[in-house]
Design brief:
Order of helices and strands: HHEHHEEEEHEHEHEEEEEHEHEHHHHH
Number of helices: 14
Shape: elongated
Number of strands: 14
Number of domains: 2
Structural class: alpha+beta
Largest sheet: 12 strands, mixed
Strand content: 15-25%
Helix content: 55-70%
Distance between the termini: 29 Å
Length: 410
Amino acid sequence: MFKEILRMAFASLGVNKLRSFLTMSGITIGVFSVIGVMTIVSALRGSIESGLNILGSNAFQFQKFPSGFNNGNNRKYRLRRNITLNEGQHYQRLMEGIARTVSLELYDFGGIAQATYENRKTLPGLTFGGGNQHFLAANQYTIETGRNFTETDVAMGRPVAVIGSSIRKALFPTETAIGKVIKVRGRTYTVIGTMAERGSSFGSSQDDIIIVPITRFAMEFGNDRQSLNIATQALSQEVYNETIDKAITAMRIARGLEPEDENDFELFSNESLVASFAKIANVVSSGAFVISAIALLAAGVGIMNIMLVSVTERTKEIGIRKSIGARKNSILTQFLIESVVISLAGGVVGILIGVVAGNGIAMMMSASIIFPWAWAAIGLLVCSGIGIGFGFYPAFKAASLDPIEALRFE
């Protein structure tokens, strides 16, 4: 009996293919919106530990602006004084014996840096900046060939550079880079080391980078227009929080703040970056959920409308079936199956499109490919509920028709 009811339900849907498809598309759009966003968010969450682990272990950083995920009131932060190299060096002296390393970093944010060697050149937009001898360790880089800066290189401001693997491949495809002189922004530097390949993070290459001694960078490009970043590594996880407290005090002293002044700098760590990303991800997820809920509600109303039309069109058919012995439950089941099939078909298509689109965007951001099984299961359950909930009244109306009246219907 159930097989026969199922066969009749699918046959009825096949009679009006276009109408069934259009009704199904409403469910598809609603499910696609939430599954697509959840796929992207889940993929990024899966890559967040490696993608945002930019400070090394037991490390934190001071800078003028908050982290990129939480810019807050931009005007407030723009009005702050830049953190100068002198302040950074003062802070470094205060943290001697308290922190394992203190990395001082300045960057050229103009986006025009380009490296050249003889007749070869890189694309513009390199990451170009200055750092001390602790820059590589603080930013999770390692030396592949050559050497890192020494304390003497930094103290004397020597015109030397350590370059990323992308720069090495572009300028020195068949020869060693060590000892060669490259030009960046009109200045020349001797390459003393190359960094091991890091790959991309969130769609941005980490190997398009050139670092020179921070004293040299400040001397040639000035420290007035750029604000210093200071990365500090604690001696161990056990003294991490204590180190942060002492570092804040040292930073306030280096900045010349009075006891009643609030901090005019920002502190962030890997954990704060993860938490900041999680807040934004939750907001995006909530927005996608609201949008998809509205779309699914509209699609549910569409299913109810189409099923009511179908009941009206098939009134005589229902009368004939009931007159030859079809039970009320059989009629109710057939129309509910039609409603649920439309809803589930739309949900499955929406899930597939959402997963493909979400993973496509995730791949562009160098995140891992995933399938959100939990959200897919929730999507199918919701679609089943929509099919039953919005299809019940038309099904009940069809099952409650009087066979004699139904046979008279024209």
